[in-house]
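Ticket opened by: R.M.
Priority: normal
Category: complex prediction / small molecule

The reporter submitted a protein together with adenosine-5'-triphosphate and asked that the result be attached to this ticket for the collaborator who will pick it up next week. Submitted input follows.
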Amino acid sequence: MTALEVRNLHKRYGQHVAVDDVSFTVDEGEIFGIIGPNGAGKTTTVESIAGLRRPDSGSISVLGLDPVKDRAEVRERLGVQLQESSFPDAIKVAEALELYSSFYRDPADWRELMELLDLTQKRSTQYKALSGGQKQRLSIALALVGNPRIAILDELTTGLDPQARRDTWSLIERIRDRGVTILLVTHFMDEAERLSDRIAVIDGGRVAAVDTPAGLIARSSALQQVRFRVRQPLDESVLTDLPDVTGVEIRDGRWLVTGTGELLSSVAGALARAEVVAEDLRVDQRNLDDAFMTFTGRAPQAPASFQREVG
Ligand code: ATP
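Result attached by the on-call engineer:
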């Protein structure tokens, strides 16, 4: 049932503590997201899981194996798409897939993967001539070519346009549906929220929170706002007396109620009890950005390459 277990992981580079104390478990078949500010230790954590870094202390179990001691076995079961994968410029798509599949004992059918990742038309194209999205899809295909039980995807959609990002998300869901457990490191809150079953927020080399996206959002300290109009008279105390409500304002004939918890149902219930009908009722939803702020004290930042692309 448990695909991955990380216990008290600690890793320094010289005097610099990159990962202080990170623990989490990932169940088989889960998409597990890792989010956190730049330099929080996310990549060091996943590189340690992949056996590319040797932890200073703590333990990691990948399907019951130790990534350092059982490096060869872990390589067979865990595929990695790391940041800025680079391949020889002249290698062609089909050549890269065939070559990488030869490194594994029980590889996936690379032609089928090429089809799944929509690269068949580009089979004879050199790596240097691929678009950003195609390069990204090739690096995902190469992470999957060993037929892994677990795939680590780091900055999956950085540099992709909005349509390519959405296409990649559906692809990841299809891969999960084939039974692959996915560890997803991302700077994009929409991506983490849309794809992850659970998310770890890592900050300063420690786990600040682990929960479902909805759970993290519910724990966010951001205030919600419910807005509506009424035709009947309404006594403000009907709302201000509610424990979830922190503020009530009337602006241009519209009521604005600010608060926490189950604000919408509290307000709707109070209005119903007062026999007042709310019209044009809206709620401003909190999202994962708010949760990120709550747990890290900072706003999430898209990677520089993405900021450049979107303007
Ligand atoms: P980002 O979101 O910016 O990719 P991250 O959360 O993945 O960051 P890491 O790449 O794990 O963070 O880095 C954690 C810390 O360790 C950072 O302060 C980084 O500068 C430092 N670091 C990472 N790799 C090395 C290295 N090879 N040598 C020295 N310091 C490093």
